[in-house]
Amino acid sequence: MKIEKNDNQRKITIHTPVEIETVEKKSRFIANLAPAKDENEAKEHIEKIKKRFSDATHNVYAYYIDHGTYARYSDDGEPQGTAGMPTLNALKMSGLTDICVVVTRYFGGILLGAGGLVRAYSGAARAAIESCQRVIYNPFAIVSTTIGYSEYKKLENKLDMLGGTIEERDFGQNVSLRISVPEDSVERLCVEIRDLTSGASFVDIVAKEERPSPLN
Fold this sequence. Notes:
Blueprint: E1 11-14, E2 18-24, E3 27-35, H1 39-52, E4 58-65, E5 70-74, H2 84-92, E6 99-106, H3 113-131, E7 134-147, H4 149-162, E8 165-171, E9 175-182, H5 186-196, E10 204-214
Antiparallel strand pairs: 1-7, 2-3, 3-6, 4-5, 4-6, 7-9, 7-10, 8-9
Helix pairs in contact: 2-3, 4-5
């Protein structure tokens, strides 16, 4: 299943794996939700949980990666449409991406019917989603610059206002810096450095990356 995505979407995912157990008419449903940046990580999570719960009646899984570019599910023996798809829909409706969930079922002796299975599997996935710590990935630029010692202290104070962090310092005749800064603050950082050094120093963007911060 391939789904078109908006390139401007920020990545919101989970910070650490979550395990939640629910019970429906004596059947146990154990949802293990984990971050997965690609299909390999999703498959590793699935195999880990299937091995851990190898004696279970079913290990239904779904994953939703890159805003739906990669979206897969398995009913694992449950009637078609009653397990994997509802579980995947719970992931899609969560607002999260790069996640994988395995919902393990231990049959309790009472048949749930198609509607009951849909509610049980989707409900277990939603319970895990609701209990997770969410993080949002924001675009950062890694820049380098060289400035004098007198400007160095002044720049440190200004970086706080820009959300920037000095990651590397090399003290020689001047101070060579490697700085991470939110992408939307790069232009202002360039102006600040140019003003501090009267146009003598410039900023080079050496890399771009996304970094997580807590969302709730």
